[in-house]
Specification:
Layout lengths: L1 H17 L3 H13 L19 E4 L2 E5 L6 E6 L8
Antiparallel strand pairs: 1-2, 2-3
Keywords: Disulfide bond, Signal
Protein name: Thyroglobulin type-1 domain-containing protein
Pfam family, one: Thyroglobulin_1
């Protein structure tokens, strides 16, 4: 599970460095899943291409910056209501 969290953090870091749109990151993750990556979740994008304000990874969910996808605040368990 740590490997998946590291991968997600790496994707977020690349997103910040290269200003990737949510839809680009989602497409890349979908491609990785097709190649056999397991437990790779998200990101969730809005219709406008921004990041949804709530993002989830295998370990839980968090509030996210809608432009970068960067985590804001703490990671909470799946199913916990977030007020972002």
């Amino acid at each position: 599970m740590i490997r998946i969290e590291f991968l997600f953090i790496l994707i977020i870091a690349l997103n910040i460095c290269f200003a990737l749109k949510c839809s680009d990151v989602k497409a890349k993750n979908d491609e990785l899943r097709k190649k056999g990556a397991v437990d790779l979740v998200g990101p969730v994008c809005t219709a406008s291409g921004d990041y949804d304000k709530v993002q989830c990874i295998v370990a839980g969910c968090f509030c996210a910056n809608v432009k970068t996808g960067e985590r804001i605040g703490n990671l909470v368990r799946w199913g916990t209501k977030l007020s972002c």
